[in-house]
Design goal:
The protein is of the alpha/beta class. About 45% of the residues lie in helices and about 15% in strands. Strands 3-2-1-4-5-6-7 form a seven-stranded parallel sheet, with helices on both faces. The termini are far apart. Bound molecules: NADP nicotinamide-adenine-dinucleotide phosphate (NAP) and coenzyme A.
Length: about 250
């Protein structure tokens, strides 16, 4: 596999795991977030661990012009990408009565507008055939208390994926999403399931009775980026241990 991948949010957690999966197999990556130093450290970690080529960059996905400028620069350094991953997101747990309009907007802007900005800039430079992958979440289709902002944003992400798949298929670009279940050792899980008891309940809400790993999600991304998935577009791929087969009240307990 020889991929050149630009990954928003690739500086930590799930998306960093995907970046490592790509460089382990001979690909090159741009990983970026808001924090340039964190991105440089992530790129160094990727290169040290996998021996592959990685560049760290800084852009806020809410700023379309900043994303476009970063992509133009990275395309000069690494070559035109054939894989774009929109993985950056923000989350906090709060009941709607304690979320201000700006709190709601902040998460919608990072997750939904940010995904659009990354895909839209990617469209201008991606080589074809090319693949785009959004990292969505179960909240896109399952209502969850204290997550109104994330549910709204990720539901929008799923529709962006489906519409762009329809529009860009004829241009040789496939657009899909991965919906991870709870992934151990990530910021997302630490924020939503901070205690051991939370984690026990969450694990039991999956059919496989375990948390996922970043490698589980990396493997799903590698599949969606590969020619083996050449006829798959507009799909939301659940990689969640069967979490959605039950319901949020703990069907598997
Ligand atoms: P994480 O480690 O907190 O990573 C978030 C990444 O996004 C970081 O690289 C962060 O870098 C970047 N970021 C945040 N705001 C940004 C902005 N405005 N502009 C550019 N970059 C920004 O998160 P994670 O838990 O691994 O989650 C990764 C993805 O998986 C997210 O899309 C999340 O919704 C999804 N997901 C996670 C889980 C889970 O179990 N963790 C489950 C389902 C779905 P900076 O801070 O430097 O900006
Ligand atoms: N409860 C309620 N509102 C909150 C909140 C919380 N726990 N955390 C932040 N907000 C509100 C703020 O009060 C603010 O609204 P206000 O101006 O009306 O007071 C708004 O959200 C923006 O906060 P700010 O800190 O300025 O946003 P930011 O752009 O610097 O950071 C976040 C975005 C809040 C999502 C931050 O948590 C973040 O950077 N997250 C990235 C990492 C992450 O979430 N990883 C998990 C991915 S699943």
């Amino acid at each position: 596999m020889s991929k050149i991948a630009f990954i928003s949010g690739g500086t930590s957690g799930i998306n960093l795991g995907i970046a490592k999966g790509i460089t382990k197999r001979g690909g090159k990556v741009l990983v970026f977030g808001r924090d340039g130093e964190k991105a440089a450290a992530a790129a160094a970690e990727i290169m040290a661990e996998t021996g592959g080529e990685a560049v760290g960059g800084s852009a806020d996905v809410r700023d379309a012009a900043a994303v476009a400028a970063l992509f133009a620069d990275a395309a000069q350094r690494l070559g035109a990408p054939d894989l774009i991953i929109a993985g950056a997101a923000g989350n906090f747990m709060a009941p709607a009565s304690r979320i201000s309009p700006n709190g709601f907007k902040t998460v919608v802007d990072i997750d939904l507008l940010g995904t659009y900005n990354v895909f839209r800039s990617g469209f201008d430079i991606i080589s074809r055939p090319g693949s785009m992958i959004a990292i969505t979440a179960p909240q896109a289709v399952q209502a969850l208390p204290e997550q109104v902002h994330v549910c709204a944003a990720k539901a929008g992400v799923n529709m962006v994926v489906k519409v762009l798949a329809m529009e860009w298929g004829q241009a040789g670009i496939r657009v899909n999403a991965i919906s991870p279940g709870p992934i151990l050792g990530t910021e997302g899980v630490d924020r939503m399931a901070p205690t051991d008891e939370d984690k026990r309940i969450w694990a039991n809400q999956t059919a496989l009775r375990r948390f996922g790993t970043v490698e589980d999600i990396a493997n799903a991304a590698l599949f969606l980026a590969s020619p083996e998935s050449a006829y798959i577009t507009g799909t939301i791929l659940d990689c969640d241990g069967g979490m959605k087969l039950g319901d949020a009240s703990g069907t598997y307990l």
